[in-house]
Amino acid sequence: xDRTYKVIELVGIxxxxxxxxxxxxxxxxxxxxxELSWYEVVEHRGHINEGNIQEFQVTIKVSFKIQx
Length: 68
Known about the structure:
Elements lengths: L4 E10 L3 H13 L5 E14 L2 E14 L3
Antiparallel strand pairs: 1-3, 2-3
């Protein structure tokens, strides 16, 4: 069986954790894209305010199957 996937890049943001940032990005993508397959963390960064982490910003690549 032949399959083709498209890969897109997303940035998830959360004030709680990097895991939540990833889940936010995937959850939002799943609202409009079908057959999400995998994700890969490309970059992990955040915003610091007065010595504390203010938010987590995670760039991920997400793949989804192209429909025939």
